[in-house]
Structures are given as C-alpha cells and as structure tokens.
Amino acid sequence: MLLKSEDKDKSNPKSYRPICLLSTISKTLERLLSNSLRPVFLDPGYASSRQYGYCENRSTTDLITEVLSQVDNTPDRMMLAVLFNVTGAFDNLKWDNIKTALKNRGIPGDLLSLVGSYLSDRQVTSFGAGIKFTHRLTKGCPQGSILGPSFWNLCPDDLLRVISDAGGNAYMYADDLILLVSGNSREEIEMRA
Q1: I need a labelling partner for 144 at 20 to 30 A (CA). Which of 33, 62, 77, 150 fits?
Q2: Do 29 and 37 form a contact (C-beta atoms < 8 A)?
Q3: Contact, 133 vs 125, CB < 8 A?
C-alpha cells in the first residue's frame, strides 16, 4: 500500500492506495477483453459525446473549446459553471454497475460472464508490524489496468445522457464533471441548477 501523498494522515486507511500488480497473463486478457468490448465502448448509441476522458480523438483542448463555445453562444444570458470531482472514482466503481452497464449495452452473455469472472475473487493484502491482513474486494479498478478507464466511462454515460435530455449541458473529463447552467437571471439559474 502506498501513501497517496505526503500531506495525508498516515493513521487513516483511506490515505493509502493499494499497489495492484497485474501479471502478464492478466494484462493480455485485459487487452483481449478491451479489443472485444471496443465496439461497445465506442457505440454512439451508448457512449456519450460529452465524455472526453479516455476517449479516442478527444482531448482536454476539445473539452475547453466546447465549454468556451457554450459560453460564447449565450452572450446575453448569465451562466453558472458547477465543477465536481468524483472522489475515489476508480477505487469505488462497483463491479455490479460495470456488469449492468455492459448488459444494458447488449454484450453477448459469454463475454459478460468472462468480464464478471475477471472482476471476481479479487483481494488486497497488506503487511505491516508482523501482521498480514487480506480484504476481499467488490469494487474498484486496479491501478494501471487496461480496462479501468473504459469501465469508468461506461458509468457516467447515462448521467450525461439524462442531463442532456433534460436540456442541460454537462461534460466529463475522466472523473471531473462540469455542469453549465444558463438563464436570464440568477433566480432562473438557481432554479434550473
């Protein structure tokens, strides 16, 4: 386990990040799964065009350009930008949510079973002061995994779609969300937000 940063409380377990060592065979399996799931990850029927993190041909510059365009297109109105960071996004991504998102996107049952099997029976073990502690995991993406970013992108897609369908403007870059709300008055913006 590594301390996330020097300013963290060393007595708080949440201040530590487990080191995930993936074997060559695990990385190979992740690469094969990623290639098989690629059409699902990129399907415009599901993949939000408002997600810019871990997406091919989309960058921070593209996101900034889009946000500035939204601001420029509302010159006579007020605009509020609400910024969120999803703390511990990768550490707290529930495996059931990943499997549900994949199932809702219609992946074949055998591939879904393989993903479920790949995510199951994971554990983290820590050693210290002559004590060994093992904890079974039911959530989280291993640090440095090939599939982690794509699995993360599956989950906020639905949120971005709901906001867009309601007439809102929300964009994500990895685990950062920006919500843009415009209106003719502060009261209107507060009501819409």
Answers
A1: 62
A2: no
A3: yes
3-state secondary structure (DSSP) of residue 14: helix
Name beta bridge partners: 17. Answer: 2
| Token pair for 109 | 């049952």
What is the rounded CA–CA span in Å between residue 55 and residue 151? 12
In tens, the pLDDT along 52-91 reads 999 888 999 999 999 999 999 987 889 999 999 998 888 8
Q: How far apart are CA 117 and CA 139, in angstroms?
A: 13
- Which burial class, exposed, middle or buried, applies to 39 when counting CB atoms under 10 A from its CB (0-12, 13-18, 19+)? exposed
Alpha-carbon distance of 141 to 144, in angstroms, equals 8
Whether this prediction's pTM lies above 0.85 is answered by: no
One-letter amino acid at 183 equals G
What type of residue is 145?
S
Query: Could you give the CA distance from residue 165 to residue 142 in angstroms, rounded to a whole number?
Result: 33
Tokens of residue 151, six digits = 């699995």
